[in-house]
Each structure stands twice: as structure tokens, then as C-alpha cells.
């Protein structure tokens, strides 16, 4: 590595280390002083992030002069009491001297489950009914607001919250708390409501779009995971919107919190599954099982242990984010369509978690949330893939049309018709009854050919009936008797047209002489998700191949036609083998995976 490059990396690491130390020291210093400065003349709102906490109950803890220095310092963003009972929270707000031109409002939310609020020792409101047991407690509403203009005094003011938490539900590891000077009826502003509603509308539209893609685009799994991603965002955001708009009770939150949190986990897993199936990663089953198992472990741990869980949703995102980046970078290096767009979209989506978790920088989007950005960008990815699939489908249709034309040319060749007509003329003189049977068999064969010519896939019973008619025609022409034996054939299956008909025609041409009787045997067996067909025939002309020093057989038009038909219908999911086995000509066709 170049010396200048090493020096540059060292300098950057040192700067990052110093910045991290500064952030840590600042946070530590702030953690020792749960006190904020608020100027109601100029400020709109002030978050109350740091609090003093103590388990137990004493009316004296609401007084302004009470010393709470021995209490535990907690953050509203990571708060989950160990025990159920009655507890207290206290914080201090310092008001500047001078006239206040705005109202002063205290807003609290998600303090589980019922609480009383005191300002400078004066009770300013209740939310629910505090109790000494779950039965005695009555859970309050999600958010609470009270006007404290007349109680505010210059200097230090003390806000105390007495609460009981018998209806507390995990994860529940945070609450809302702020002082502000804006009048509106909810815990969040009208602008936030509009953004929530806008986000829900985007998620719903994308879910409908993804479902339409799935139903009309070949039912590919990645579209289903896109729908799940949109619905997960819709459920979590919709629930957040509804619980704030209707100010639901904490009892309702107790019921729906697991669903709310589950929506976040489902969204992360849906992103992983969408990427895995969109870009057809190798060992996809192992990836899917690992991601789902990891998500379940993190989710169950957070639901059971709450804040004291050894792992949380943020930890899950910190684990899954590098993994998703690795998948997208791999897809980009493999130049898979849409992978670059997906990488850019995930970059926007994961930017807040990367900056916050790895660099300690708090960052937010003003216009669109990361969720809305990734869901809209992944619409572009899905649309790109639909376009690619349409091109592939168009190519397949064109190739199918060429195959159909070749099929008709191959089947109704002039020399075949002339030879058959000559046979009919000869039989009409010698055996009129056989001549009539030959005409009927030829007509039946042509009727089946006309019926199946436009189809990409037909019932195997139609194919076998076509083979019977062709063997009858050739038997009358060559004055021979051919037997067609079937073993273990599942008549509900389908195959591309003219597969076995072509192989039987090859067998007649290369294995039998005129007036030589023969047997064709078609057997089938299933194993896992694969179906194996074996077509076997005898014939005196096979001895020449068997005795030849070079027993390889040149691949003719018939085998090439069969391979083309199989690749058209089952791309990459079939295998064809042929050769001599115990003096018999064997052709083995294996088809796996079903529909492509």
C-alpha cells in the first residue's frame, strides 16, 4: 500500500477517534445534569430528554426543594423500569428572565401506564388512574398536555411525574416529553400528521402496484416480498398515525405494540428477501432461513425482555445492514439488472442508521423518510425487472413462432406426404382395408398436429395419442407392427408438443428396417421435484452402432428440436441424455422445478 495512503488513513482514524471521544464526553456531561434551558419568548419547543428516576412512592418527591441527586439518571429514549409498581420521574427546566409572549405547554406521551403530573409541586393533571395492582390501575391515554403559564417562574422549575406501570408492555423503551409554546390538540404537529398520512398513501399505492405486478408478471416471488415490504411499512406507519390521531389508551397499545414492532422486523426481512429473489443469489435457501431465524430471535428477545433484552431492533438493523450491502455489491459486480438502483436506494434507507450507529451523527430527511425513498426506488427496480421479463417473453414468443413454423415444415414434409400417398396407392390395390386404415391414421395424426401446433405445452395424453397414430401410419407404410408400451405415466402432467413424437420418429428412421417389427417403451419416475422420462427402443440397425469402434452418434435435427423445445419451456431446468444401453437405444429426459 502507498505510504501517503497509509498516512491519510491513520489521520482519518485519529480524527474519528477524537470526535467519538468528544461526543461521548459531551453525552456523559449532559447525563449528569437532567436540566434544560427554555426561553418561551423565542423558542417553539424543547425536548426533555434526561430525567431522574426512582422506584417507590413518596408525596414529598413532587416538591421543588427535594434533593434527587441520588436518583438514577435515565433518558426518555431508553427507559424501561425493571419492576411493576409506583415510580417517579423528575426533571428541571430553566426559564429565562423576562416577559413570555407565548403559552407554555407540557406534553407527555407513552408513559406506561397511568400517571400524575406535577409542576413545582402542584398537580396539573392526571392520565388514567394510578394503582397498586393491575386490577386497580386504569391505563391512561397515549398523550397528555397541560397549560402551565400561571405556574412558571423565572429560573429553575421542576416537572415531576408519578406513575404506575402494571400495563407496561415491551419493548416500550421510550416516552415523549417536551415543553413548547404551540397550541395543537395532539402530541405531534399537523405537519407530522400530514407526513404520516402521505407516507401511508405511498405504502398502500406501492402494495397495490406490487400485487398487480405479481398477478400479471409471471407470479415471481420478489414481487410478493415487495408487497410484504410495503404492507409492513403501512402497518407500522398506519398504526403510529392512528394511535396519535385517536389518542388511544395505553391498554390498546398493550395489545397492538407487538404488531407495531413486528412491522419493523417484517420490513427489514422483506428487504432482504426482495433482494435475494430479485437478483437470484446463490444458496438462496440458506440465506432465507438464516435471515428469518435471526429476525425471529431478535424480535422474540425484544418482546420478552424489553429494554433489558440483550439484543434490540436497532441491533438487528446494525447486523442486517452490512449483510444487505454485501448482497447488493455482489449483485452489482455481477452486473445484474437493477442492482445499482437497488444499492443507491438502500444507501438512502440505511443512511440514518449508518450515521447514528457507526459515526454517532444524528441525521433526518425533511421531505421524504428513508422508508418512502426505498419503497419508491424499489418500484423502479421492480419495473426494470418487469421490462426485462417482457423482453425475454417477447424473445420466447418469437422463438416459439419459429419453432411452430419449423414444426409444421418438419411434420408435413412433401416427401413424407408423397411416400405416404404412394403407400396408400399400393395398399389400395393389394389390401384396400389397410389402405383405409392408413388414411384414417394419417388424418388423425394431422388433426392432432393442427390442434397442438400453437401451444407451448400440451397434456401428455395428447402427445401419446399422436405417437400412437404415427406408429400406425409408419406400420402400414413399412408393413410392420410397432408396439408402444407405457409404464407409470402420470396423465395429469404436461409437456411441450412433439417431444416424444420426434424421438419415436428418430428411432424408426435409425433403428429399424422395413418389415421389421419393433417395440418402444416409455417409463416415468418422480424424485423430489423432478420428473424423469425414459424412452427405449430396440431395432436391428442398432447393432452397427454397437459394433462401431466410435459409438458416438451425431446429433441430428430431431434431437436439436427437442432440446430447443425443452429450453424454451424449462430454461435451465432440464437435462437430456441418450445412447446405447444393453442393445437398446435409450433417451432420458429429466425436468426439474416445474414452472419457470
In terms of topology, how is this protein built?
Elements: H1 3-31, E1 35-38, E2 45-47, E3 50-55, E4 72-75, E5 86-95, E6 105-109, E7 114-119, E8 122-127, E9 143-147, E10 155-164, E11 176-180, H2 190-216, H3 221-245, H4 250-278, H5 284-305, H6 313-333, H7 339-359, H8 370-411, H9 414-430, H10 432-452, E12 458-459, H11 460-478, E13 482-487, E14 494-495, H12 499-511, E15 518-527, E16 530-537, H13 542-547, H14 557-569, E17 574-581, E18 584-592
Parallel strand pairs: 1-5, 13-15
Antiparallel strand pairs: 2-11, 3-4, 3-5, 5-10, 6-9, 6-11, 7-8, 7-10, 12-14, 15-16, 16-18, 17-18
Helix pairs in contact: 2-3, 2-8, 3-4, 3-8, 4-5, 4-6, 5-6, 6-7, 7-8, 8-14, 9-10, 10-11, 11-12, 12-14
Identify the notable features of this structure and list them briefly.
alpha+beta, Jelly Rolls, Rhopdopsin 7-helix transmembrane proteins, seven-stranded mixed sheet, five-stranded mixed sheet
CATH-derived topology of the largest domain: Rhopdopsin 7-helix transmembrane proteins
Strand tally, please?
Answer: 18
The number of distinct structural domains comes to 4
Number of DSSP helical runs: 14
**CATH class call of the largest domain:** Mainly Alpha
- Beta fraction: 15-25%
Helix/strand-derived category reads alpha+beta
What's the N-to-C terminus distance? Answer: 48 Å
Q: Averaging pLDDT over every residue, what do you get?
A: 78
Can you tell me the overall shape? rod-shaped
Amino acid at each position: 500500500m502507498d505510504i501517503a495512503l497509509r498516512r491519510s488513513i491513520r489521520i482519518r482514524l485519529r480524527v474519528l477517534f477524537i470526535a467519538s471521544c468528544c461526543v461521548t464526553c459531551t453525552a456523559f456531561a449532559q447525563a449528569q445534569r437532567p436540566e434544560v434551558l427554555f426561553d418561551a419568548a423565542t423558542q417553539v419547543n424543547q425536548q426533555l430528554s434526561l430525567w431522574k428516576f426512582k422506584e417507590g412512592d413518596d408525596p414529598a418527591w413532587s416538591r421543588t426543594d427535594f434533593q434527587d441527586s441520588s436518583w438514577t439518571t435515565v433518558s426518555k429514549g431508553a427507559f424501561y423500569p425493571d419492576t411493576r409498581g409506583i415510580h417517579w420521574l423528575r426533571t428541571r427546566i430553566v426559564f429565562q428572565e423576562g416577559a413570555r409572549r407565548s403559552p407554555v405547554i407540557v406534553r407527555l406521551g407513552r408513559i406506561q401506564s397511568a400517571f400524575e403530573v406535577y409542576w413545582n409541586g402542584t398537580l396539573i393533571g392526571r392520565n388514567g388512574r394510578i394503582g397498586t395492582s393491575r386490577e386497580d390501575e386504569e391505563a391512561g391515554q397515549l398523550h397528555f398536555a397541560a397549560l402551565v403559564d400561571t405556574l412558571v417562574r423565572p429560573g429553575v422549575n421542576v416537572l415531576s411525574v408519578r406513575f404506575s406501570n402494571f400495563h407496561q408492555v415491551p419493548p416500550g423503551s421510550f416516552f415523549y416529553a417536551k415543553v413548547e409554546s404551540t397550541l395543537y390538540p395532539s402530541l405531534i404537529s399537523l405537519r407530522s400528521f400530514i407526513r404520516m398520512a402521505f407516507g401511508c398513501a405511498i405504502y398502500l399505492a406501492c402494495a397495490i402496484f406490487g400485487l398487480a405486478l405479481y398477478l400479471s408478471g409471471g407470479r415471481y416471488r420478489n414481487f410478493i416480498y415487495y408487497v410484504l415490504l410495503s404492507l409492513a411499512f403501512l402497518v407500522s406507519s398506519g398504526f403510529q398515525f392512528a394511535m396519535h390521531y385517536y389518542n388511544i389508551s395505553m391498554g390498546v397499545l398493550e395489545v397492538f405494540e407487538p404488531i407495531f414492532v413486528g412491522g419493523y422486523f417484517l420490513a427489514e426481512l422483506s428487504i432482504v428477501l426482495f433482494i435475494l429473489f430479485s437478483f437470484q443469489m446463490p444458496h438462496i435457501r440458506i440465506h432465507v432461513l438464516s435471515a428469518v431465524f435471526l429476525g425471529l430471535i431478535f424480535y422474540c428477545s425484544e418482546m420478552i425482555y424489553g429494554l433489558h433484552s440483550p439484543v434490540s431492533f436497532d441491533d438487528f438493523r446494525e447486523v442486517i445492514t452490512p449483510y444487505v450491502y454485501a448482497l447488493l455489491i455482489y449483485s452489482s459486480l455481477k452486473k445484474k439488472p437493477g442492482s445499482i438502483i437497488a444499492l443507491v436506494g438502500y444507501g438512502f434507507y440505511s443512511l440514518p442508521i449508518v450515521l447514528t450507529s457507526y459515526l454517532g451523527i444524528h441525521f433526518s430527511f425533511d421531505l421524504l423518510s428513508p422508508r418512502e425513498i426505498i419503497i419508491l426506488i424499489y418500484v423502479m427496480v421492480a419495473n426494470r425487472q418487469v421490462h426485462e421479463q417482457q423482453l425475454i417473453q417477447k424473445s420466447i414468443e418469437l422463438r416459439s413462432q419459429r419453432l411452430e413454423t419449423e414444426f409444421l415444415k418438419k411434420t408435413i414434409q412433401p416427401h413424407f406426404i408423397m411416400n405416404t400417398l404412394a403407400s396408400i396407392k399400393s395398399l389400395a390395390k393389394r389390401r384396400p382395408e389397410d389402405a383405409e386404415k392408413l388414411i384414417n391414421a394419417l388424418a388423425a395424426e394431422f388433426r392432432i398436429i393442427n390442434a397442438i401446433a400453437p401451444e407451448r405445452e400440451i397434456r401428455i395424453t395428447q402427445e401419446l395419442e399422436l405417437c400412437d397414430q404415427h406408429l400406425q401410419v409408419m406400420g402400414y407404410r413399412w408393413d410392420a407392427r410397432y408396439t408402444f408400451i407405457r409404464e407409470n405415466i402420470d396423465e395429469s402432467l404436461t409437456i411441450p408438443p412433439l417431444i416424444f413424437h420426434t424421438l419415436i420418429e428418430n428411432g424408426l428412421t435409425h433403428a429399424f428396417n422395413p418389415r421389421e417389427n419393433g417395440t418402444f417403451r416409455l417409463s416415468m419416475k418422480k424424485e423430489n421435484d423432478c420428473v424423469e422420462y425414459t424412452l427405449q427402443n430396440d431395432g436391428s440397425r442398432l447393432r452397427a452402432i454397437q459394433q462401431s469402434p466410435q459409438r458416438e452418434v451425431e446429433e441430428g435435427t430431431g434431437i436439436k428440436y427437442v432440446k430447443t423445445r425443452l429450453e424454451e419451456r424449462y430454461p435451465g431446468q432440464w437435462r437430456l441424455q441418450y445412447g446405447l444401453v444393453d442393445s437398446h437405444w435409450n433417451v432420458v429426459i429429466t425436468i426439474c422445478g416445474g414452472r419457470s
